[in-house]
């Protein structure tokens, strides 16, 4: 039952609800984090993505955001801006956009 097409569809639906809420509540300075629009030179990735699949025999879903800033000497592959948005660092206050969207959904399941 945990790997049926119906369970996979249900997991994808829940992931889409989390994605929509994260996009709705994300801070939008450039749009790169929320929607993957590249308004800043060098910003890549971004936007929330839903990946529903059968993993280890069970339907599961991963909602992620891979936005990165322009590469630099300290960050040759770019700074992981999405991680900073979620957890904070010395330059960015934690906003928990994805975490809050997941928390909001969990109150309705």
SSE order in H/E notation? HHEEHH
What characterizes the major β-sheet? 2 strands, antiparallel
Give the radius of gyration. Answer: 15 Å
Walk across the major sheet and give the strand order: 1-2
Distance between the termini: 18 Å
Total helical elements: 4
Which structural class should the secondary elements be placed in? alpha+beta
Q: What fraction of residues sit in β-strands?
A: 5-15%
Question: What would the keywords be for this entry?
Answer:
109 residues, 4 helices, 2 strands, HK97 gp10 family phage protein, 39% helix, alpha+beta
Description:
This is HK97 gp10 family phage protein. The structure is a single chain. The chain starts with a helix and ends with a helix. β1 and β2 form a beta hairpin. It is elongated, with a radius of gyration of 15 Å. With 109 residues, the chain is of the alpha+beta class. It is built from four helices and two strands. Helix content is 39%, strand content 15%. α1 crosses α4.
């Amino acid at each position: 039952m945990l790997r049926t097409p119906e369970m996979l569809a249900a997991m994808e639906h829940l992931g889409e609800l989390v994605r929509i809420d994260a996009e709705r509540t994300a801070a939008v300075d450039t749009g790169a984090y929320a929607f993957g629009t590249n308004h800043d030179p060098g910003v890549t990735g971004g936007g929330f993505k839903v990946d529903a699949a059968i993993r280890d025999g069970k339907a599961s879903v991963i909602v992620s955001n891979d936005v990165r800033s322009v590469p630099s000497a300290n960050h040759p592959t770019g700074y992981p801006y999405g991680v900073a948005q979620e957890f904070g660092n010395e330059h960015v206050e934690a906003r928990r956009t994805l975490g809050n969207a997941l928390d909001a959904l969990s109150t309705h399941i």
